[in-house]
Design brief:
Number of strands: 12
Strand content: 25-35%
Distance between the termini: 76 Å
Order of helices and strands: HHHHHEHEHEEEEEHHEHEHEEE
Structural class: alpha+beta
Shape: globular
Number of domains: 2
CATH topology of the largest domain: Deoxyribonuclease I, Chain A
CATH superfamily of the largest domain: Endonuclease/exonuclease/phosphatase
């Protein structure tokens, strides 16, 4: 009996360390080559929790084994650092810099068809925007039309004189879905980055001038997993009842795999655009991916994560069936100190709004 327990323990130890290390590889391997690795990476928080449990047990069972588990945990320090903010180090505004607030929000078409069942959500969203009053507002799944009651662009232009809107879908020649970046500061140039593997996902680039300094703001909306309502309902049922007998595993894994592959290519496309320009970049928006992913690591290169500077915990931004996910980001050029960062936890969309304050140096 004792021998069997020892064998079982060693299997748990090896399996736990192996899965954890595989999840740590996810940001470094292109998902088009190994998409399943991205799926393993999605479970990184659970892997960390499992390793902590193993470490605690091994401490009482065998100190050498505990040391092995601890070393494995340290090997994933980059991943843990990307995911969780322990000791934020907020910057102060240097002399000669101007503070600029940036807010990003996937507004889910302002609850156009009252999906939430709450009514008047659009007005509540616009009220929150007015209350926060960001200098630069970046919106995904933005909706506007030419009718008097739903011309969202016209409403925003009362506060924001500079507007960059690109359509991803048009219906009846008057109803528009897409991305919108609106600003109190001048938008000097506008570019749209279309993805070859998606009709409706894209990024738009707005060159904005503040304090005599020009920088590109990338409004990013990467490929979603595109789960259907029935799949979300099944996930909720499993979480409550614990019965996974009818869970569509193959279907869900297939959508996860395709999503990772598409986001990997889309992140590469945006990175190439950033590298081809010599002015600072600020990348914000809905990545539809966790910090332990190839897409995040690719877009994070050379930039600082505002959450890492002044966030707390895991900083979840997704207001849906997976409430621990951080999938909305503000990544700023390293020459722009991060002064403040907040997640606005208002239950108005399936994403929370994210707001940061950065300091922009005076141009030469």
């Amino acid at each position: 009996m004792l021998h069997a327990l020892k064998v079982l323990w060693m299997l748990c130890l090896l399996l736990g360390c192996g899965i954890y290390l595989l999840s740590c590889l996810a940001p470094f391997v292109h998902p088009e080559a190994y998409p399943l690795l991205g799926i393993v990476g999605l479970g990184f928080p659970l892997c960390v929790l499992g390793m902590v449990v193993l470490l605690w047990i091994a401490f009482f069972v065998n100190r050498k084994q505990a040391a092995i588990v601890a070393v494995c945990l340290l090997l994933g320090s980059y991943n843990i650092y990307s995911y969780i903010s322990f000791l934020p180090s907020v910057d102060k505004t240097p002399e000669g810099y101007r503070e600029v607030s940036i807010m990003t929000w996937n507004v889910k078409n302002f609850d156009l068809y009252n999906w939430s069942g709450k009514g008047k959500v659009k007005q509540q969203m616009l009220d929150l925007i007015r209350l926060e009053d960001p200098d630069i507002l970046v919106l995904q799944e933005f909706y506007t039309d030419d009718t008097k009651g739903y011309n969202t662009l016209k409403e925003l232009q009362k506060t924001y004189p500079y507007v960059h809107f690109r359509k991803s879908l048009t219906l009846y020649k008057t109803k528009y879905w897409g991305l919108a970046t609106v600003s109190k500061y001048p938008i000097k140039k506008e570019v749209a980055i279309r993805f070859s593997n998606s009709k409706h996902n894209m990024a738009i680039v707005s060159e904005i001038e503040v304090n005599g300094t020009r920088f590109n703001v990338y409004n990013v909306h990467l490929q979603s997993i595109q789960f259907a309502g029935a799949e979300y309902e099944e996930m909720e049922r499993v979480s409550k009842a614990g019965d996974a007998s009818r869970f569509p595993v193959r279907q869900v894994l297939g959508k996860l795999k395709l999503g990772y592959q598409k986001r990997g290519h889309q992140a590469d496309t945006i990175e190439a655009h950033i590298m081809s320009h010599d002015i600072p970049a600020i990348v914000v928006g809905d990545f539809n991916d966790s910090p332990n992913s190839y897409a995040y690591r690719t877009l994070h290169k050379g930039l600082q994560d505002a959450f890492r500077k002044d966030g707390r915990g895991i900083g979840n931004t997704y207001n849906g069936p997976f409430p621990s996910l951080r999938i909305d980001y503000i990544l700023a050029h390293t020459s722009f100190p991060v002064i403040d960062y907040r997640v606005l936890r208002e239950d108005l969309s399936d994403h929370y709004a994210v707001k940061a304050v950065i300091a922009v140096p005076k141009g030469e």
